[in-house]
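Hey, resending since the last one bounced:
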Amino acid sequence: AADSDGGSEELVLTPAQLIRSLEQAWLNEKFAPELLESKPEIIECVVEQLDHMEANLKRAKKGDLKVSVHHMEIERIRYVLSSYLRCRLVKIEKFFPHVLEKEKSRAEGEPSILSPEEFAFAKEYMANTETYLKNAALKHMPPNLQKVSLLKSVPKPNLDSFVFLRVLERQENILVEPETDEQREYTIDLEEGSQHLIRYKTIAPLVASGAVQLI
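The structure tokens again:
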């Protein structure tokens, strides 16, 4: 499957690698406090793979044990895919003004955190929220209080929260912020295969690059 920007780079994965990529994106999204980069190319390829698997099942002999096994695998993949997309929608609803602001201010060439469909959903959700607030509450307030900043009113993702992770690629000299004012900053090495509990914002770039996996 080609990349979403239509460039020359292509995503070439075996079916097993594709499913592992979906599961990795799902776990990262599930445990990260913020909305992560959109993965439309993974979603598109997984849907194509599911269609291919279902077509193969229709041609298989009924009663074959392999049919039941493959059907269970299809259901498992569908569950992961739907859970992943549902998790992203929940975050969009929870942090919609901050998500839209981040999308609007991203630099040219920087990966989008929203798919086109999610972007349309977020804009509609924000417009509906503003309309509801205006009609249900703000119009009854004094004129000087009839404006509200959703960016200020809606809580931001808590990037200081702690997450569990497994290291996929060794990392050196990761700067760790102190837990108390009495402590100083220090650096650590993350050994491949090791597991850690660490502040999310410390390793957010490593989640984005795929060097670590949230668990």
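The longest strand covers residues 162-167.

Sorry for the duplicate.
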